[in-house]
């Protein structure tokens, strides 16, 4: 819905957001939505795992926004998959459950996603690695607060 609003207002050319200039407003809107989720949906750390997951997602989005302002296009796809993958690993450790098959499948999906972004020439290897790094690191840093 946000994309269609931005397209109607003339702030987004296409769904791919090919330039860093086109990425700034959608990332800013996403940061506001994430802040509202943290403030209204997960107040007072009722579910600490999800609260800190969304804080990590917000940090990743803010980092991607900063990079877009600095004219670097990190892969938002790999930011998302990297963050979710790291959260699932921590979740499995925290609750002592065996989801190795799911983790392996998710790793394959992440690799296929990165390969498709390269094949479509949407990103360079550097942009993909930076995206994966931006997704994984905030989740790793926030582990100490809920794990």
Question: What would you note in describing this structure?
Answer:
- This protein is mostly helical and 147 residues long.
- The protein is 76% helix and 0% strand.
- The protein has 6 helices and no strands.
- It has helices at residues 2-8, 20-41, 48-69, 76-94, 100-119, 125-146.
- The model has no long low-confidence stretch (mean pLDDT 91).
Number of E-state strands? 0
- Level of helix content? over 70%
How many strands, what sense, and barrel or not for the largest sheet? none
Q: How far is the first residue's CA from the last residue's CA?
A: 35 Å
Q: What count of helical segments does DSSP give? A: 6
Strand percent estimate: under 5%
Cα-atom radius of gyration: 16 Å
Quick check: average pLDDT? 91
> Judging from the principal axes of the Cα atoms, what is the shape?
globular
Residue windows where pLDDT falls under 50 for at least 5 positions: none
Structural class: mainly alpha
Order of helices and strands: HHHHHH
Q: Which features does this protein show?
A:
147 residues; mainly alpha
Blueprint (SSEs and pairs):
Elements: H1 2-8, H2 20-41, H3 48-69, H4 76-94, H5 100-119, H6 125-146
Helix pairs in contact: 2-3, 3-4, 3-6, 4-5, 4-6
Quick description:
The chain has 147 residues and is an all-alpha fold. Helix content is 76%, strand content 0%.
